[in-house]
Amino acid sequence: MSGAIDTAPVHAAPGDSSHARPAWALSAPALMLFAGVLVIPLVMTVMLSFHDWGQYKGIEPVFILKNWHEIATDPYYAEMFWRTFRIALLTTLIAALFGAPEAYILNRMSGRWKSLFLLLILGPLLISVVARTLGWALLFGGNNGLMNKLLMSLGLIGSPLRFMFTETGMVVALVHVMMPFMVMSVWAALQRVDPQIENAALSLGASPLTIIRRIVLPQIMPGVLSGAIIVFSLSASAFATPAIIGGRRLKVAATLAYDEFLNTLDWPLGAAVAVLLLVALVLIVVGSNALIERRYAEVFR
Amino acid sequence: MRTNGPLALIFHTIFVVFMLAPIVVVCLVAFTPEGYLSLPTNGFSLRWFRAIANYPEFVHAFWVSLGLGALSSFVALLFAVPSALAIARYSFRGRDAVAALFLSPLMIPHVVLGIAFLRFFTTIGIGGSFAGLLIAHVVVVFPFALRLTLAAATGMDRSVEMAAVSLGAGGWTLFRRVTLPLILPGVISGWALAFIQSFDDLTMTVFLAAPGTETLPVRMFLYVQDNIDPLVTSISASVIAITMTALILLDRFYGLDRVLAGKSDPER
Amino acid sequence: MPFLELDRLGKQFGAQTVVDEFSLAVAKGEFISFLGPSGCGKTTTLQMIAGFLDPSCGAIRLEGRELTAVQPAKRGLGIVFQSYALFPHMTAAENVSFGLEMRRVPRAERVERVRSALTMVGLAGYEDRYPKRMSGGQQQRVALARALVIRPSVLLLDEPLSNLDAKLREEMQIELRQIQRNLGTTTVLVTHDQNEAMSLSDRIVVMSQGRIEQIGTPQETYERPASAFVARFLGRTNDFAAAIDRTVAPPRLVAGSWSAPAPAGIAGPVTITVRPERIGFADAGLAARIVTRIFQGDHWLFQCVSECGTVIVIRQNDGQPQPVEGDAVHLAWRVEDMSLRGAGAAA
Q: Under CATH, to which class is C4-233 assigned?
């Protein structure tokens, strides 16, 4: 995600210290805002995860490893985190598998159709995620939900599948929620591809399949990967979709933390789950960003 | 430009159907005349839209969402515009770190932000208040406001400012008469994108809202948790209709791809 | 039989005719330029030869073989694009090698041919560079090597030099001409730059609004433009309105105070066209006054006001004293240096 922004200075000479003061003065209000109401709360949350909690005594501000020990030893949490990342990974793979070709197809359309379908595909991004997930809940229904009726009438499945309260259902709904991010990311990469480049490959004797495999795909791969990072991190921390489709039994990290906070009221344990999710995601995102940048530095710098 | 083959078009059709299906189903069910969830096979009815009026908490939540979105996006811009100018124009030690910090809310899961703000606000005694919601939303929409403003400030031709300085403008006048008008398209799309983010946020807000300060997504989520009935589909359909109208207006007058892709070059 | 033949080729986009009745025969080894302003249909014609666009009517034949039914990938033409269209994720050598891989050329031969192609364009030692790390001129050379290494029957160049600065463009023109001469590859160049067309081509096809205005050698098109458009597009010209004076015998062609024996077959008023460098200062001729004098190193450029309107005169800087601004002068030119056009001109 850090790659989404171009911070190259336009005119300022690098290393000119006389420029530093107005820059800090201009950034000061936002820096103070971030320090005051972002950094402090996050630090408080980390501290909270080390506090003690009891049904009757509430939160006790001591420094113990009880919550972390519980998460590390109780297989319930391992299973829950494994489920969270399994769902996120599956969602990412499916989104990439379908989103990238769709972006490519969109890019080849003529102007009017292109903007219409771009609007239709990116538009859902702006519609409340509750409304979209509700739509999937309606489609999934019970055994005779619309989705099952359609799949069975197409002969794709013999007996109805369970979608509600299953990982399958969560992945389908999450793919839908995340798809615009993938299409957008690949789309952006496609905009940087020279429109004549396919003609160039064609004139050199390449077949359509070769062009896609050897010319187009390598060039949009950074877009697919950065889209994948966005989709993965958003899916792993998704809340509304798992909560509505997964129900109360099939917990992921975000819904579990929510439960600890607002139902069980064990804030320190909830904080520990959330902090672990944050740390895991930051490591994954930063790590894969670094990998991608190293892999493609030579070509695209 | 090569064209798409039949296979590509079949794929595309299935893809678009998949993207639209849940939205269309919500809108259809909203028109059911029955008292339970069903497709309106026996004619269309507006009874569930009229029913919204009997649930004032939804109407109230809508106004909370609207006010919160508009206000938090505006406040975020007050902080974002000077920061964007600083990052776009000055090369100073720590610039990359500052930019990374400002964009960090994008990387932090909203559930973590919700927990952090809940802990913070209850500690300082503004838990469940509108003020708390406002602060939290300003922080999460800040990166969106910053990114589009920054794109505009980076793309701006600075010789125009130099020309204004040579003609005697300076300080506040320079900003108000020259700089701001030039980056205004980016600022406006930053506001729009920030507003949408705030209006749609559920995950963070669900931790912070209390009865009276519940936003529409929170109210809908809590309702769906208990029971799914046609009422919530008619509310969803209304929200979808409002969003679509706003989108079409935005696209007509401004260009949706500019808002969505965070671009602000005037050619597009 | 011509090597490459375009036979009444046409292209319509909807109701708009972009290329109209384009017929041309290109000999083997010839260097042909399509020259014209943007929107004249020259790039469309090139794209039809390449196969990226299907012609609405007409035929394209290569060595007598119909080309329109052949897939672009199978035509075996080398193309250099205006944007170069290099593969950014491949090194220079990989770019050049790509076409050979598609032809399943054995690895050893491939390496050898890539090396010699890059050497030919002066890029030996740049094999492992990525395009992003190369200058515009170097990228241009890679694109040329990539197109030539497959030994194309025809080389198509789509404004290949338009992204280079003036000095580099001139160097590349000379180099391009030498490479083309050495290889003897039949070449079609699309350009809007008349200098480029003239310095590179054996023949020029001047185009305007989808039609061919003239086909000829650079000298022919410059010296004997077939239309006012060609005359104006290929360098600067002066136009004078002239009439035939029949009160004297033999009749004389008169433009202001300039006159000459009327050529045979001239009936009524005509337009005289003369290139600025063919007009000289003389003791008698068209009376004029010098308004502006500009020194341009190897030549002087004069703007004069005459009885027949504004006249541009170019004189070589041969060290002789030249008239200054405000001087009254007489402008004269040889009859064979002018061309006549208009209602009264002989067909």
A: alpha beta
